[in-house]
Here is the input.
Amino acid sequence: MHWTNRWLGIIFLGSGCVAEVDMPFDHDGDGLLFEQDWGTDSFNPDSDGDGFLDGAEVDEGSDPLDPDDYPYVGGWSLDACRKSIESTGDELGDIVNNFELPDQHGQMLKLHDFCGRAVLLEVSGFT
Here is the structure.
């Protein structure tokens, strides 16, 4: 009886049944399938014109509709919480102000871009 159940299972799987699946199509090749959810143009791979594909922007945590918000070229992904975090002060345990500095690639980064992570700031000066 047990052997018969296996044999019937093999016949069922190999019976040639075809299922029709309604899959979204990536018209513009940007890697983003559900563009209506993001409000992006499904026929333009770079809806905000910043030089980054909409799919790459979503994957890296940036806004595909904001030309000033794009993936970090330095290799770290940006955290989604960066737009909702608010400064609370400069005391121990507070969230400091969101300042901006250039990185080693010349790209301007804000401290809150890396919210949820430990950040080591190396500061030096010349006299």
Notes: Confidence is low (pLDDT under 50) at residues 1-12.
